[in-house]
């Protein structure tokens, strides 16, 4: 059964809700542009000249699809003057489909990270592929029903923008699927971290686990907030935070990938420094020692050589 505002009070209330959504879109776009300015230097250094492949493709998709979708949403809900019911609903479906894509590419990044940690183990690959297909299929079904229960509504002749009313709140099912799927990829990282011995556990693995936990906590918090909104607020407000959550997850995925590049670059520089110090130590050991000199000098030198990487790491 469709909810259609008919009284003057309901129409004014719907317009107020629409204004809140407009502000939220502007805030989301501001966040995306701010994030771009903050991280553009790292992107230029690590991404632009890198070999084009799956990881770079996912990075670019997570980076540039969200602002384009938000800009399109601003056009649809604020600036467009052709506000027929059919056109508004069509534009809403396009925006929602791109939002669904944003969630999918964010999860793809998590699957690729988990697969890389397990050193291309075939069973893990099959698990992640099956999980990814199941996740996007269930989400597509829920989103399709969500679109089917939408109705375009015009605020009045000559008033720009579209107002979309929703008749179901089943989107919470997709949010539950998102949280559960993210939990599985995080569990794979944690299992790998626990089963790896301390000697073989790399700094990258530690960073990936720590970042993965932070990402999961953020996604869970956003999803719970969205589920509460979907279950409690008026129909015209049910999808208020869906697009901002998708955009924020894309931002977090970009940060995950950039942080891995930063940590890997730092470890590479430290390894180069270690090799230089070891070569210096070997050259000193091969020098002719003055008569009567004990091994005390060599022991002190060795201590400096092996303490240097630790000090550099903490600096």
Automatic annotation (TrEMBL):
Keywords: Membrane, Transmembrane, Transmembrane helix. The chain crosses the membrane at residues 20-39, 60-80, 92-112, 124-148, 171-191, 212-234. It holds the Pfam family DUF6533. InterPro entries: DUF6533 (IPR045340). Residues 23-68 form the DUF6533 domain. Coiled coil: none annotated. This is DUF6533 domain-containing protein. It comes from Schizopora paradoxa.
